[in-house]
C-alpha cells in the first residue's frame, strides 16, 4: 500500500513538472513570436522609410 501511495505521489509531481514545462515552453515560444513580429514590423517600417526617402530624393533631383 505504501509503495502504491509513493508511486502515486511521484506520478502526480511528474505530471505537475510536465505541465510546468509545457507552460514554460509555451511562454518562451510566445515571447520569441512577439519579438520576431516586433523586429519584422520595425524592419519593414525601416525599409519603407529608407526606400521612400531614396525615391523622394531621386524624384526631387529629377525636378
Could you explain the architecture of this structure?
This protein has 1 helix and no strands. The termini are far apart. The longest helix has 61 residues, at 2-62. The chain has one domain (1-63). It is rod-shaped, with a radius of gyration of 27 Å. It has 63 residues and is mainly α. The model has no long low-confidence stretch (mean pLDDT 82).
Low-pLDDT parts are: none
Category by helix and strand content = mainly alpha
Number of H- or I-type helical stretches: 1
Number of strand elements? 0
Give the total of domains. 1
Distance between the termini: 92 Å
Fraction in helix: over 70%
User: Mean of residue pLDDT?
Assistant: 82
Give a short account of the largest sheet: none
Instruction: Assess the beta-strand content as a share of residues.
Output: under 5%
Order of helices and strands: H
Brief overview, please?
With 63 residues, this protein is mostly helical.
Which keywords apply here?
63 residues, mainly alpha, 1 helix, rod-shaped
Please specify the SSE layout and strand pairing.
Layout: H1 2-62
Amino acid at each position: 500500500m505504501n509503495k502504491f501511495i509513493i508511486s502515486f505521489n511521484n506520478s502526480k509531481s511528474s505530471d505537475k513538472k510536465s505541465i510546468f514545462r509545457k507552460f514554460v515552453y509555451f511562454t518562451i515560444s510566445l515571447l520569441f513570436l512577439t519579438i520576431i513580429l516586433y523586429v519584422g514590423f520595425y524592419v519593414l517600417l525601416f525599409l519603407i522609410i529608407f526606400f521612400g526617402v531614396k525615391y523622394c530624393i531621386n524624384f526631387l533631383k529629377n525636378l
